[in-house]
Amino acid sequence: MRYRTVGDLRVSAVGLGAMPLSLEGRPDERRALATVHAALDAGVNLLDTADSYHPPCAAPGHNELLVARALAAYGGDTSDVLVATKGGRGRAADGGWTVTGDPRHLKRAAEGSLKRLGVEAIGLYQLHKPDPVVPFEESVGALRELLDEGKIRLAGLSNTDGQQIRSARAILGDRLVSVQNRYSPEVRDSEAEMRLCAELGLAFLPWSPLGGISRSALDGPSRLPGAGRFGAFHEVAAERGVSAQQVCLAWLLAKSPTVIPIPGASRPETIRDSAGAADLVLSARELARLDAQRDGGS
Length: 298
Fold this sequence. Notes:
Number of strands: 11
Strand order of the largest sheet: 3-4-5-8-9-10-11
Number of helices: 10
Helix content: 25-40%
Oligomer: single chain
Distance between the termini: 31 Å
């Protein structure tokens, strides 16, 4: 495993997005715990969760509680594991997503996450999404208060643009350490934010990083959805003798030394495969070939 940094912390170059372990279609708890343990065994020490990762009509925090149980049940040392959680979103009864950026709500949400995770302070707490009806600076102000109170150690943002990143930086200073936006072969509209993070020294955590690529090479060959539109990733994978998912994650890692993808997983073998991307170094020619593959182009 290679490592990168979030603030002053050393974390694995590939993290684990724990969301699939708690939403619809989730695995049973035994497999969910085994998936987290497989990640830890592979050297992954960044676990991403949120209070809103739970089934519809269920209480907030299913995923946070699961991550806490997995860490408690793990036989090895977990002292260097960074658990990153988020507040500011919720789930409606129909399975949809809500946004609440009111500072009072964010502070209550952080308190709930703190209890569920069973820690003295949350390692990394992220504003899940800006609320269009609440001034962004007020939501970020709640993060500043949580930092000042020692309830969170580091702060991050998710689903934000460049102006919001700079605004949060002005409020939080170097205690703002990360930005988590969607970025993948299929969705590349956060390239400017990724460059800004490199400029400011912030970790850029792409969520849904495998978008456009089939779920897993372990599920079958490249005939699965995505192979046609982004076939170059599968072609390079075949040439290298690895999965297209590994190629995709290695491509992301090559974008910037501050990029730390957080692929989701619901099986031990899937996260083991993803973790292997940390040691896959693609050539300049391969990277150019992948960069050119947009919406099925080649």
